[in-house]
Structure formats: structure tokens, C-alpha cells
Write a structure and sequence with these properties.
single chain; alpha/beta; seven-stranded mixed β-sheet
Length: 361
């Protein structure tokens, strides 16, 4: 399966891209093919998307002596799509948007956007990178019926929060405004594109002496990584993860872990260790929560890396706690607290603790 690449002749020019950008790459995602096509045609100024594809389609056109590239996707939010097929589509999209998209434009029909679709959309974005949400803009399609309760759709509100409150509505939207918002989203990320981060399935761990040399080396390297991070009590966390697997709720809900503490470097290393891939990146001054997902023994796992809560103002602290809860809705199962003495404390009763925290803020 491979996507389609089509180029358009020159169209009208607009001053939307900063001088350091020669190309803007936009990926369209959402729960309605017709709405995505309409928006793609608006961006390019021509009717080029006219039938539902079976693969990703790439069409490009000029904007102010530069280039804008639109990658339209099949219905990735279909509940019947297999994980294998989903991975194939994403790999196709990665190839067409090489070296990476600048903006994910999430075209969402409010009446039809369900919790299941929200989780699937988050999964698609996280399969690209844990930074995909920083590059995402929500476009709310015109509702089929006039209603003042647009934002009563809880999955839609959650998605807007995950996308750092970037959204606009399609009603009365013209091309100039849409291109301006796409350009602003790219500028907010300094023109950087999303780098695809591959997720590899972990090998099933064999007990004791039955481990092969590769697995033994992996175990050793994980231990070394933990020690290098200064997190000497990581083994205390392992039984809690194993215990969660026995919890019947784990079959229908994600295991949700929040990393707290002062050292962003240690939280980054621990988060990557839990996920099993380099999905988190150290930053000198992280000011907002960052989430990524993976699997633990075949079950979905979400890890949220929080900023140094102790350095935040009361108002910012309240906002970040609420954002953190949204990223791991309905709330974390485990809080991992990294302290200055290089130890970790695992809080398995985190849901109760978290609810108490929210009540106080």
C-alpha cells in the first residue's frame, strides 16, 4: 500500500509562512472524510480531494513562492480498523510527510466525535510522537443543527485541552484565516516538524534461567539505565505494575502513571524506561505536562511527565494539575515521586490521592 502524490499549479499568494520556512506540511485527521476533504480543498484553494481514498493522499501547491503540502488520510478512527492496518496507514503518512509534518489539523464533527474516537485519535498522534499534540490544531466542523451546546461534547473538550487549547470553528471560516492559524501553529513550534518515533513491541519476558542472552542483556541495560538516572528504588515499582495486570479494570482502562519531582532529566529517563522507547525529551524548564503511551504486557499504558510542581505559582499549579488529569483521564493509577535523595516512592492508591488533591485545588 502506498499513498498518492499530486502537485498543483501556482495559486494565489499569501504571507503566512515565516522567512525561515520554505514548506508547510499539514496532515488532516478526523472523524469525517467529507469534512476533511472540504478543509483540504479550502487550504489548497481548489477541489482536489473528491473521493474517499483507501490510502493516504498527498497534494501540494504554492503559497507565497513557497510550498504547502496537505496529506489527507483514510478513516483512521474507524473502530473496526486493526492495529496492523493502523500502523500501515501511519507509516504511509510518515513517508508522504517526510521529514515530518509541521501541523496536524484535526477536523472533528462535534455531534459524532465519541470517547472511543478520541482515544483512537490520541493513539494515532502518539504513534507519531509524544510531541504531536504541540503541533495539533482542532477545527470544529459546522454542526448539522444549530445549537449553543457545541462545547458540551466532553471528548471534544478533552481533545482541545490536549492540543494546548488550539482550536477554531469552520463556520464562516475563509482560506486566509485558516492559513494564518496553520502558520501560527508552525511558528509556535519555531518551524520545527514532528519527528516520527518508532514503537517496538517488547519481547515477552521469560522467568529466571529461561531467558535468552539477549533478554538478559536487556535486563542488565535497564538496570544500568535506572542506576544512571539515580533512581535506585525502581524495583519497588515493578510489583505494582504486575499487580495492576491482575486488576479486572485493567482490561478496559489504561494503566496511568504520573511522574512527579524536581529533576526533569530523571523523570525523562524513568518515563522512557517505563515506555520502553525514547519518547520523552529533557528540557531545562518544562512548564507543562507531557504524555506518551505504550504497552505493559499487552495492555495500554499512559505515562504523564509533570513539570516541577514545587516551582509553579498557585494558579499555574491548579491549571497543570487539571491538565495532567485530562491527559490521563479519568485520573492516574500510580504517582511516582522522585525526591532529591535519588529515590522513588510509588503511590498505588493514586486515584484516591489525586481526587483529594483536586478537591483541595
Amino acid at each position: 500500500m502506498s499513498g498518492t502524490d499530486v502537485s498543483l499549479k501556482r495559486s494565489s499568494s499569501y504571507g503566512y509562512l515565516p522567512p525561515y520556512m520554505s514548506e508547510l506540511r499539514v496532515v488532516l485527521l478526523g472523524n469525517s472524510w467529507s469534512e476533511r476533504s472540504s478543509v483540504g480543498n479550502l487550504i489548497l484553494g481548489k477541489t482536489v480531494f473528491n473521493k474517499a481514498p483507501e490510502c493516504c493522499v498527498k497534494i501540494s501547491g504554492p503559497v507565497e513562492e513557497k510550498k504547502i503540502v496537505v496529506i489527507n488520510t483514510p478513516d483512521l478512527l474507524d473502530p473496526n480498523i486493526s492495529e496492523h492496518k493502523l500502523t500501515e496507514f501511519i507509516q504511509d503518512c510518515v513517508r508522504l510527510s517526510d521529514p515530518g509534518p509541521h501541523v496536524f489539523l484535526l477536523v472533528l464533527q462535534p455531534e459524532d466525535f465519541t470517547e472511543e474516537q478520541k482515544l483512537k485519535l490520541c493513539r494515532v498522534l502518539q504513534l507519531f510522537s509524544d510531541r504531536s499534540f504541540d503541533h495539533s490544531l482542532v477545527l470544529i466542523s459546522t454542526p448539522r443543527e444549530e445549537s449553543s451546546g457545541l462545547m458540551e461534547n466532553s471528548p471534544l473538550k478533552d481533545m482541545i485541552v490536549k492540543c494546548r487549547y488550539r482550536y477554531l470553528t469552520q463556520k464562516n471560516l475563509d482560506r486566509a484565516e485558516l492559513l494564518t492559524r496553520l502558520g501560527q501553529t508552525a511558528k509556535e513550534n519555531n518551524g520545527e516538524h514532528v519527528c516520527h518515533e518508532r514503537f517496538e513491541e517488547p519481547e515477552e519476558t521469560l522467568p529466571g534461567d529461561h531467558q535468552n542472552p539477549k533478554q538478559q542483556r536487556t535486563t542488565t541495560s535497564i538496570t544500568d539505565a535506572v542506576k544512571a538516572a539515580g533512581l535506585h528504588e525502581f524495583k519497588q515499582m515493578t510489583p505494582q505494575l504486575s499487580h495492576c495486570e491482575k486488576n479486572p479494570l485493567s482490561y478496559t482502562s489504561v494503566l496511568r502513571i504520573v511522574l512527579l519531582g524536581k529533576s526533569d532529566d530523571k523523570k525523562t529517563k524513568l518515563g522512557n524506561l517505563i515506555i520502553g522507547n525514547q519518547v520523552f525529551h529533557s528540557q531545562k524548564q518544562i512548564r507543562q505536562c507531557v504524555a506518551s503511551c505504550g504497552e505493559w504486557r499487552g495492555k495500554p499504558l499512559t505515562v504523564v511527565k509533570a513539570p516541577d510542581m514545587f516551582s509553579l505559582s498557585v494558579e499555574t499549579l491548579i491549571e497543570e494539575v487539571k491538565k495532567c488529569e485530562t491527559l490521563c483521564s479519568p485520573g492516574p493509577n500510580v504517582l511516582l515521586l522522585e525526591e532529591e535523595r535519588n529515590t522513588i516512592h510509588c503511590r498505588p492508591a493514586a486515584s484516591r490521592l489525586w481526587r483529594k488533591t483536586l478537591q483541595h485545588v
